Structure to design on (643 residues):
């Protein structure tokens, strides 16, 4: 683009047509050749007569001005005039590198970024400059740098490019990236406006090779993330700070049709840069939510996929409350209540009462089902999770081996230190399996179990054991019944048979058990320590614009790679590892980038005002005025002739 002060022209060569205006002036002023005079004697009779409507020998000057104005306005309009255009990348005849950020933050302005890159490639093609196009999405081959070639090849790569559902990534080895690049070249960096690891080093390396022009996005960026707390909430961030849009909660309605379930908004006095939005919804509604999305923001960073960290189960406690003053510390329900209240919606009462509330999980603490055994069994078959804790009352049941609501058959009586089946000393817990429900939980060395209920020998016992003591005896067993599950903790929920209930491990194990309830959108377990399990397989992933798609061609991700967050190996999405599922979300904190030594196309500056349309309108008005003026002149002559 050529600029003349505040005025720029996209096609300045068309202005050369203005050189024809003087010739047009002469042509419009020209008169027909003078007539040849032939003497005729009869014309003497016409002497003294005057022509009442003489024909002018020249076009009126104001008609000439209108016609020349129309032509000049059309010529300038076709030259693509722009008032105060944005500064463009420095011109020249050397190589040009077009670098585009391609993380989730680039998605909202992707169309504008592609248009900016396309304009630079077209200009370079017209100048015959070598061009290289580089996409900063972290998917370039190791050591592979930009390849300088024709603008046509670069344009083909640009058309196929798309933003990715992870943060913009720059090469770690800049020497390898620029190893085959020319010694000097110019760079147009179409950035997303945020700071990313390695950006400063890449900027310095490119500036050492030539001038760097940075094009920043004009629209604000929004990101959405989960804030882990007892009350699940979201963090909506804006860069730069400004008015915050609403967040849409999406999920299936009772008929299974995905739609908007709720709208969440930040409080009026929230921080405009980072607002905390509580997920304050009824449990029945909250547990159907599959994702949260910022309204009007099309990027993976503005979408949060819901997992069990944002769901609160409805949990029923049934057992010995021991509400008498001084006795509540002996009650198993006291320890269960303290462990589960921050993360679940608790209800307490008799078994007949709590089943009417349709809970996700029922916990029986050293209690028998009694007359509600059949009703409880039907509830489990329909998808409920029954968790039972052993204790003296259960051990004393004469028909314990016939209890149908246990995952294994139990021996009457308990195994106790100092008894007939004495251990000699309390036992510690064995490490949890890497693919089980308790995978990754650290076991304190001081957690010991003094007594337990032992199962009868069974070929399926090993498959049903999900936690055990160091001597190999079961601590937690589980069995599937219909769509639900039954779990048994073979020791007490208080400190009577050990100190497990006094440890943080007790809280973590209960959280894993409760969150494994299959009633919440088919999710199995929350992601609490993803780096400590085996591999994670994608179940659903997002594209850069936040749209869900099938995980085609994605291999299982190693735990250490999964723990690094979204990336080329693990795009933002929902993943499963054994019995556990976790959502990997792209949104997070946003830090503005600075660009020392580079020419920045300010995002706040107006992109320039095109004047072509106005000039074409002016040309049309001038031609209309010319037609009207010509009609007026011709009409005047006719009136004079009639007179």
């Amino acid at each position: 683009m050529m600029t003349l002060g505040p005025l720029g022209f996209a096609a300045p060569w068309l202005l050369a047509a203005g050189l024809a205006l003087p010739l047009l002036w002469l042509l419009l002023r020209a008169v027909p050749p003078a007539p040849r005079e032939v003497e005729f004697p009869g014309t003497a009779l016409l002497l003294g007569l005057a022509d009442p409507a003489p024909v002018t020998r020249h076009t009126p000057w104001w008609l000439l001005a209108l016609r020349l104005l129309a032509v000049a306005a059309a010529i300038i309009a076709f030259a693509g005039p722009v008032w105060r255009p944005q500064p463009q990348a420095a011109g020249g005849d050397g190589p040009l590198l077009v670098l585009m950020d391609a993380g989730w933050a680039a998605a909202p302005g992707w169309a504008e970024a592609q248009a900016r890159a396309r304009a630079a490639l077209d200009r370079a093609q017209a100048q015959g400059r070598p061009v290289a196009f580089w996409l900063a999405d972290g998917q370039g081959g190791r050591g592979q740098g930009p390849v300088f070639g024709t603008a046509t090849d670069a344009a083909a790569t640009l058309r196929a490019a798309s933003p990715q559902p992870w943060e913009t990534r720059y090469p770690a080895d800049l020497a390898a990236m620029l190893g085959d690049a020319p010694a000097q070249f110019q760079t147009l960096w179409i950035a997303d406006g945020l700071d990313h690891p390695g950006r400063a080093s890449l900027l310095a390396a490119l500036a050492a090779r030539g001038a760097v022009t940075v094009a920043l996005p004009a629209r604000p960026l929004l990101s959405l993330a989960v804030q882990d707390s007892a009350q699940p909430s979201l963090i909506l961030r804006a860069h730069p700070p400004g008015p915050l849009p609403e967040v849409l909660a999406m999920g299936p309605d009772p008929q299974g049709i995905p739609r908007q379930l709720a709208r969440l908004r930040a409080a009026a006095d929230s921080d405009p840069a980072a607002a905390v939005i509580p997920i304050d919804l009824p449990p029945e509604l909250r547990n159907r939510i599959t994702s949260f999305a910022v309204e009007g923001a099309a990027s993976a960073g503005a979408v949060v996929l819901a997992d069990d960290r944002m769901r609160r189960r409805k949990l029923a406690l049934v057992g010995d409350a021991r509400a008498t003053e001084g006795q509540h510390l002996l009650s198993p329900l006291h320890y269960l209540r303290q462990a589960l209240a921050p993360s679940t919606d608790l209800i307490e009462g008799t078994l007949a009462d709590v089943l009417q509330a349709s809970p996700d999980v029922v916990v029986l603490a050293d209690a028998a089902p009694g007359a509600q055994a059949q009703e409880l069994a039907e509830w489990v078959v329909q998808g409920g999770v029954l968790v039972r804790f052993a204790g003296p009352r259960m051990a004393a049941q004469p028909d314990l081996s016939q209890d149908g609501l246990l995952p294994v058959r139990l021996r009457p009586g308990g195994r106790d230190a100092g008894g007939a089946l004495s251990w000699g000393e309390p036992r510690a817990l064995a490490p949890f399996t890497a693919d089980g429900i308790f995978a990754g939980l650290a076991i304190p060395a001081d957690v010991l179990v003094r007594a337990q209920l032992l199962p009868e020998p069974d070929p399926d016992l090993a498959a049903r054991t999900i936690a055990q003591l160091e001597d190999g005896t079961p601590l937690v067993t589980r069995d599937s019944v219909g769509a639900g599950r039954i779990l048994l903790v073979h020791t007490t929920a208080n400190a009577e048979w050990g100190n497990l209930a006094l440890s943080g491990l007790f809280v973590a194990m209960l959280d894993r058990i409760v969150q494994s309830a299959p009633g919440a959108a088919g999710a199995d377990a929350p992601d609490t320590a993803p780096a400590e399990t085996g591999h994670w397989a994608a179940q659903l992933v997002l594209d850069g614009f936040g749209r869900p798609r099938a995980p085609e061609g994605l291999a299982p991700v190693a735990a250490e790679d999964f723990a690094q967050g979204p990336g080329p190996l693990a795009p933002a999405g929902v993943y499963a590892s054994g019995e556990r599922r976790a959502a990997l979300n792209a949104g997070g904190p946003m830090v503005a980038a600075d660009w020392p030594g580079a020419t920045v196309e300010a995002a706040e500056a107006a992109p320039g005002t095109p004047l072509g349309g106005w000039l074409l309108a002016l040309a049309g008005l001038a031609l209309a005025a010319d037609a009207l003026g010509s009609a007026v002149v011709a009409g005047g002559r006719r009136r004079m002739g009639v007179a």
Confidence is low (pLDDT under 50) at residues 519-532.
